[in-house]
Amino acid sequence: MPKANETVLEIDLGALTHNFNYLKSKLLPNTKFLAVVKAFAYGSDSVEIAKHLETLKVDYFAVAYTREGVLLREVGISTPILVLHPQPINFKTIIERCLEPSMYNAKVLNEFIKVAEAEQQNDYPVHIKFNTGLNRLGFWESDVDYVLSKLKATKAIKARSIFSHLAASEDLNEVEFTNRQIESFKATAKAFKDQLNDPWLHMCNTSGVINYPEAHLDMVRCGIGLYGFGNSAEEDKTLKPIARLKSVISQIHMIEKDETVGYNRAYKAKGFEKTATIPIGHADGIGRQYGNEKGFVVINGQKAPIIGNVCMDMIMVNITHIDCNEGDEVIVFDAEHKASDLAEAAHTISYEIITAISQRVKREFYN
Predict the structure, then answer these.
(1) Rounded to the nearest 10 degrees, what angle do helices 13-25 and 46-55 cross at?
(2) How far apart are CA 178 and CA 172, in angstroms?
(3) Hey, which of 60, 72, 247, 341 has its CA 20 to 30 A from 217?
(4) Is residue 15 part of a domain?
(5) What pLDDT score does 307 carry?
(6) From the CB of residue 90, how many other CB atoms can be counted at a distance below 10 Å?
(7) 3-class secondary-structure state, position 359
(8) Is 71 helix (H, G, I), strand (E, B) or coil?
(9) Catalytic residue among 92, 263, 270, 362
(10) Are 126 and 113 in contact (CB under 8 A)?
């Protein structure tokens, strides 16, 4: 692989294939696989990721917002797309683009029925979300009769699936709570299975797939696992991070004791020190929380702490202990020095750092 001469995010489509096949191997043959490609496919590239997963015969995609689904349709993605958090203003666009919305409260359900009827739709597929403990979006179990009455009163829409979301499936200290969620969902879903034309059921995310096989049901929704992160050290050994963020040393400075580095003079040299300036900053997704020696990069196999405040387009690192030169490659994260390690150093999670990588950072793809 060539050395970096600029900041670039390399995407390993072979690793994506590996992760998809690994997660799919956990499922029964008839369980459908929904790939979550929201947030620019977790900071990678939703178009290229979706195109690749479509060649792998994924059953469904999910996005958070309507415009994410529209983008995929515009580049020719034909696989069904679930919109997890649609807004009524976009309902006509959803129908025009053959997207499938989540119905999560009475207002959304009534508004979509109104638009679907006005557009003369028949059995337009929607997905009914129930809240079983995450307390974020979704109808309550007490709403079952109301939702059923609305579905039976119109021919414009039909329930393609009934779904919920696990709140703590990665935390084995919360097994009792998660099992209550699963049982609550199964009880809610039974009414729909009994009275409607057999909608699919789904509630497992990546950690649910791994830890709760009894809850795989008709479909699972995998996001973070596709991109190479599991919920335990053991699973992380099997999954492969698909992204490698690297940059280059632009300039090296020699500074004396008590000289300062960066805005607000946030870092003061403790003695004679050597620093490197790297062309990546908070506009590229490296937030200010990684500054002041909380985060680090890797240069020639050694960690170089980020010193001073992170700038919009640059970071400075301490390389006093590293033999390196201007033009040398800098690893922000890769399969060995993981995004989760960098995130942990700043008391955050891998999701935050990988989804934050700006679209101005060049993407390169390989197998």
Answers:
(1) 50
(2) 9
(3) 72
(4) no
(5) 98
(6) 20
(7) coil
(8) helix
(9) 263
(10) no
Asked if residue 170 is part of any domain, the answer here is yes
What tokens does 110 get?
Answer: 């009534």
Residue 263 annotated in active site: yes
Residue 65 lies in a domain: yes
The two tokens of residue 36 are 């979550």
Residues of the chain with pLDDT > 70: what percent? 99
Alpha-carbon gap, residue 63 to 61, rounded angstroms: 7
The model's pTM is: 0.95
207 and 326 belong to one structural domain: no
Please, what is the end-to-end C-alpha distance for the chain in angstroms?
11
- Range from 31-35, 92-96, 128-132, 169-173 carrying the lowest mean pLDDT: 169-173
Quick check: 39 and 232 in contact, CB under 8 A? no
- Residue 63, beta-bridge partner list: 83
**Cβ burial 197-229 (10 Å sphere, 16+ → b, else e):** eebbbbbbbbbbbbbbeebbbbbbbbbbbbbbb
| Structural tokens at position 60 | 């469904």
Please tell me whether residues 168 and 265 are part of one structural domain: no
User: What's the rounded Cα separation, in Å, for the pair 335 and 366?
Assistant: 15
Of 195, 227, 259, which marks where a domain is finished? Answer: 227
- Would you call 32 a catalytic residue per the annotation? no
Tokens in use for 294?
């909380």
Q: Which two tokens stand for residue 71?
A: 């983008």
Residues 249 and 219 in one domain: no
Q: State which residues form the domain around 279.
A: 243-366
Last residue of one domain, picked from the residues 175, 200, 227: 227
Asked whether 127 and 100 are in contact (CB, 8 A), the reply is: yes
Residues 209 and 288 in one domain: no
Amino acid identity of 354?
I
Does any domain span residue 117? yes
Check 38, 129, 240, 246 and give the catalytic one. Answer: 38
Shared domain for 171 and 255, answered yes or no, is no
Question: How many structural domains compose the chain?
Answer: 2
Q: Residue 304 and residue 293: Cα distance in Å, rounded?
A: 9
